[in-house]
Amino acid sequence: MDKPFKTYDQLEGILSSRGLVLGSHVDGILEREGYYAVVNGYKDPFLDTEEAGDDAYLPGTSFDEIYSLFVMDRHLRAVLFRYITFAEATLKSVSTYQFCLAHPDDNEAYLKAGCYRRDRNYPELVSGYIHELARIIGRGDRKPKYMRDYLRHYVEDHDNVPLWVVMNNLSLGQAFKFYDFQTEAVRFAVAQRFQALYNQTHHGCRRITHTRLRKSYDRIKDFRNICAHDERLYCARVDKSKSTTFKDVMGDLQTVLSNEQYKSLCTSVTSQLIEVSSRLHTIGLDDILPLMGFTSMDELAPRDM
After folding, report:
1. Using alpha carbons only, how large is the chain's radius of gyration in Å?
2. Among 115, 79, 123, 124, which residue's Cα sits nearest to residue 95?
């Protein structure tokens, strides 16, 4: 077997042989969190790249340090997820309003292909998306396994199900598709509203185009999935080029959040980094920040652009 099963005692023996300082509580942490999630997920900054051999740790590295980085990342996911929900709410609200403004006489225009963009390969994508929306409200070939009470109320007691009711049931990924599938006029109107919202709360003006908004939400939804699936966040790369960092999604969120929300996000992230720095001894924030895309903590100080 390439990777045979190992007991906790065997795993701790391996870690000790590689120079890691263990504590008395390692057993409990490994049992609750898992060896792979903690050690394999967060060991890299602590490895001695000058030392030959597999996974040799920097002198004096303790298991507590690796676990502290693991805990910080978990807290970061909770922080980022919270503010992404604010960004999600705004996308849903603005997209719904602008679409309904363009189709004021038809509460179910969202089920009609002619109300979406028709360029390139979008007609096929739109067709699949409409089927997805129809299934959510029980109109598709396959009935939904579960329907929320507010949807069931409209399905059973009204002649139609308005977009603002359906939108409440969509994931961020589904809401992003809805925005991206809009006609040029609606996409332009949505971007214009985001620009106006930004200028209302931030001390300065920013031009927000559809292209910029699309790229921002494309990354935001990917980072949202990392948070939702409890995956490693602080050094994550979500694009094919492996160039998009935590710093980039912070910039995306600055574009779509209010100034107050963004400043609060920066404060929360800074707090987590300061907390973990007090628990690290063999490495410091100068080793962690570049993995997040930052060069210094100063970049987390909110700046109006």
Report:
1. 24
2. 115
| Tokens 């299934």 belong to residue | 135
User: What's 82-109 look like in SS3?
Assistant: HHHHHHHHHHHHHHHHHHHHHCCCCCCH
Q: Which residue has the tokens 């906790």?
A: 8
In this structure, the chain runs to a length of 305
Expressed as residue numbers, the domain containing 195 is 75-264
Number of domains in the chain: 2
pTM of the model: 0.93
Of the three residues 230, 246, 264, the one that is the final residue of a domain is 264
> What is the spatial distance between Cα 261 and Cα 209, in angstroms, rounded to a whole number?
21
55-65 tens-digit pLDDT: 899 999 999 99
Q: Looking at this protein, which amino acid is placed at residue 97?
A: Y
pLDDT tens-digit map of 72-86: 999 999 999 999 999
In the structure encoding, which two tokens stand for residue 181, read together?
A: 């599938």
Backbone angles phi, psi at 169, to 5 degrees: -95, -10
pLDDT grade for 305, boundaries at 50, 70 and 90: very low
Q: Say yes or no: 140 and 5 in one domain.
A: no
